[in-house]
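Can anyone check this?
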Amino acid sequence: MKALVWLSIVAAAAAGPAQVLAQAPGGGAPARQGPGGPGGGGVVSLLAQRPEALNLTPAQQEHARRLAAWLDSLNAPLQRQIQQATGGRAMRDMTPEERQAMMPTLMPLMQQLRANAQRAEDSLRIYLDAAQIAQLDSMRARMRRP
């Protein structure tokens, strides 16, 4: 059971804020669809699509876009492996037993997605000023609240 909870947490963390804000303002189509579906890029994907969230400068926006593209290419093979392992089914559509059976396969992939997103975020943070970092940390804390 602990492993199942951990998988859910890692999956949510890998999706990050981009998953929360994947829908365009006012509803409608998703604002970003990376390889394998929305999200997967966390904060970097969010800021590449919504630079106004932190008032990014043009140089910061370009850096975020380049990191998001790099992250998409890095995560694409992992997302394909997850898609193949699940047969394209959403985890919420599986029984607890089916999810548990997939844990050995999915956990390393989900952990790698999260590590990739963290590397990209760490790289982006270098280009943010102190006020933007504080605002980003506050935004992340709000998104993690239940």
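Reply from J.R.: I decoded it. The longest helix spans residues 96-125.
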